[in-house]
Amino acid sequence: MICTLKKILKYSVLVLFVILFIYQIFLLNNGKRLISYDNLSEIQIAKLLSNAKAENFKRISNVEKICRYYNIGKFKTKNKATVIYKEPPTPHYEIFYYDLKHKLSWCPVYKAGSSTWLYNFALLGGHTDEQINNSKLQLSHYVRNIFPPLTSWEAIRILPDTLKFVIIRHPFERILSAYRDKLENLTPDDKSESRFYYKKFGRKIVSKYRSGGNNTNTKFLLKPGQFKWDTNKSPIGIEPTFKEFVRYLIDTDLTTRADDHWIPFYLYCTPCTLTYDIIGKVETMLQDQLFIIHTAGLQNKIKPHWRHKTNPFNQTNSHRISEIAKIYFTQLNKSDVKELYEKYKLDFKLFQYDETEYYTYAVN
Ligand SMILES: *[C@@H]1O[C@H](CO)[C@@H](O)[C@H](O)[C@H]1NC(C)=O
Ligand SMILES: *[C@@H]1O[C@H](CO)[C@@H](O)[C@H](O)[C@H]1NC(C)=O
Ligand SMILES: *[C@@H]1O[C@H](CO)[C@@H](O)[C@H](O)[C@H]1NC(C)=O
Ligand SMILES: *[C@@H]1O[C@H](CO)[C@@H](O)[C@H](O)[C@H]1NC(C)=O
Ligand SMILES: *[C@@H]1O[C@H](CO)[C@@H](O)[C@H](O)[C@H]1NC(C)=O
Q: Residue 327 contacts by C-beta under 8 Å, 6 or more apart in sequence?
């Protein structure tokens, strides 16, 4: 009796050692590849990956829960009468970037880590840093030339065979980023992109929402401390203020007239119609990028790179309101914030973002 028990014990220990040994080799190999392009230790990387995996599972489950709750997309049931939100009937297959070789499909949400992934796609397409940097084309056009859009038929066929991912960001941070990038910093150069946005949106916003009309200089509408223009440019004075832009968003039917930079996520990437494998977030970019790269097996092709200088292990950082938002939200009053929230409420619910702190920066 005791003899058999001893034998079992002996063999168990042996098996355990073999497993440990294999695991070590696995760890070392993986570690080497990663450590060569970053300073994180293997243990840190393993920790980030396991965090990302658990978090991703929760995100995907939550999206499904919310889609069911609001009765939209493929979770729609006929017996529930109320439909508040409507997704487009099919995904916008034409906006995706598909890399068939590496089996990757990405829905590019602008102002949410999109330049990082455009750059990654260009690298995956076999282009070098130099080629990409020296191109005169806008990055999105450059990458579009490498990965042309697919027809719906092709897309439907290949999508299940690819890793489908999207990167999301706090809706208010994204709106502010779009405003600052496209509408606020107007340049005198008539051919610039900001002029294009001024003609298409800015001018109309100002003529509709500015008391005193479009002759009132933007900066006279704002108190010091309510804005932060790029220091190397002085404002022209005809740009819409953030408040005017927010009023415009509130009054506009975003299901039919939204620019790609501020269209709600649910209308653009249709998460209730198309199930993503990975939902990344700008706020947890470090671990999510690692997770995407690892899941797709691209460790040797692209490096995770991130612009965030915050400690990646400090999760308390990840949902914080940005310093810039604290400045701009003082232009709004609490009912502006409430109305803006209502406009983007589904995005907040789908991706579990919180709006409460923004009220504290708005005026009464
Ligand atoms: C990462 O390691 C390299 C050398 O391996 C070093 O030059 C660099 O400063 C390190 N970066 C950080 C952020 O610690
Ligand atoms: C190209 O640009 C990227 C991002 O701006 C930079 O990190 C990289 O060093 C550049 N590479 C070359 C070869 O110019
Ligand atoms: C200001 O508004 C007037 C009347 O709507 C318009 O004719 C003019 O072009 C506008 N000026 C600018 C700079 O948009
Ligand atoms: C995490 O971030 C918060 C907010 O930025 C900061 O107060 C805290 O000291 C940080 N903790 C660590 C361990 O870095
Ligand atoms: C908040 O601002 C809006 C205009 O953006 C205005 O219509 C509304 O009356 C203001 N609400 C309060 C409570 O001041």
A: 225, 226, 227, 228
